[in-house]
Specification:
Distance between the termini: 19 Å
Helix content: over 70%
Number of helices: 9
Order of helices and strands: EHHHHHHHHHE
Protein name: DUF4375 domain-containing protein
Radius of gyration: 17 Å
Number of domains: 1
CATH class: Mainly Alpha
Largest sheet: 2 strands, parallel
Strand content: under 5%
Shape: globular
Organism: Lysinibacillus halotolerans
CATH architecture: Up-down Bundle
Number of strands: 2
CATH topology: A middle domain of Talin 1
Strand order of the largest sheet: 1-2
Structural class: mainly alpha
Length: about 180
C-alpha cells in the first residue's frame, strides 16, 4: 500500500506536505473500507497490511489531526485513545519508531495527568466529555500546559517524521523516476 510518487515531487515536498502526502492515501483507503464494513476485524486487517513505518505514521497522524484542534480536543482525544490501550501504545511505539522522544515524553505526561484525574482505562468506562475542563479547574490547569507544549513541539515532530520518511522512503513511498 505504498504511495506512488515521482522523485521530483518527493524531493520538492516541504515537511508538512510530505507528512500529509504519505498519510492521505492511507486514510482514504481506511475510510473506504470502513464504509463497506466497519468492524474490528476489518480495522485489524487494514492495519496489518501497512509497513511498520506506515503504522507509526497512521496512528500518530490520526491522533495529531484531532488533538491539535483545541485544548478540549487534545484532552478528549487523549483520554479516548488512552481508554484503548492497544491504540495508545501504538501511538507511543510509533513515536519511538521515528526516534521522537520529545512528543513521546509529552504523551507519557498526558497519560499520567489523566490517570491522576481518574481517566478511563477502557472504552466501557469512558465517561469523559468535552465539558470536563470547564467543570474541573484543576484538571484544566493540568491539561492546558500539556496542550501548549503539544502545540510548541508538533511542528518539530512533523519535521522529524518527514526527515525519517526522506531517509527511509521504502517504508512509505515507491519512487517513480
Amino acid at each position: 500500500m505504498l504511495v506512488i510518487m515521482k522523485r521530483e515531487e518527493f524531493d520538492s515536498l516541504a515537511d508538512e506536505a510530505l507528512f500529509h502526502a504519505c498519510f492521505k492515501p492511507l486514510i482514504l483507503e481506511y475510510k473506504k473500507r470502513m464504509a463497506q464494513e466497519n468492524s474490528t476485524m476489518e480495522k485489524v486487517h487494514f492495519y496489518k497490511e501497512l509497513t511498520s513505518g506506515q503504522k507509526a505514521l497512521f496512528v500518530f497522524h490520526i491522533y495529531y489531526d484531532h488533538a491539535i484542534e483545541s485544548v478540549i480536543e487534545f484532552y478528549w482525544w487523549s483520554a479516548y485513545f488512552i481508554a484503548q490501550p492497544k491504540i495508545w501504545s501504538a501511538i507511543k511505539t510509533g513515536l519511538q519508531f521515528f526516534g521522537e522522544g520529545t512528543m513521546y515524553q509529552l504523551l507519557e505526561e498526558t497519560e499520567s495527568v489523566l490517570k491522576r484525574y481518574s481517566g478511563p482505562s477502557s472504552l466501557e468506562k469512558f465517561v469523559v466529555n468535552r465539558e470536563d475542563l470547564n467543570n474541573n479547574k484543576e484538571l484544566s490547569k493540568s491539561i492546558q500546559p500539556l496542550y501548549s507544549k503539544f502545540n510548541e513541539i508538533a511542528n518539530l515532530t512533523i519535521k522529524r517524521i518527514s526527515d525519517f520518511i526522506r531517509f527511509n522512503h521504502e517504508y512509505f513511498v515507491k519512487i517513480m523516476d
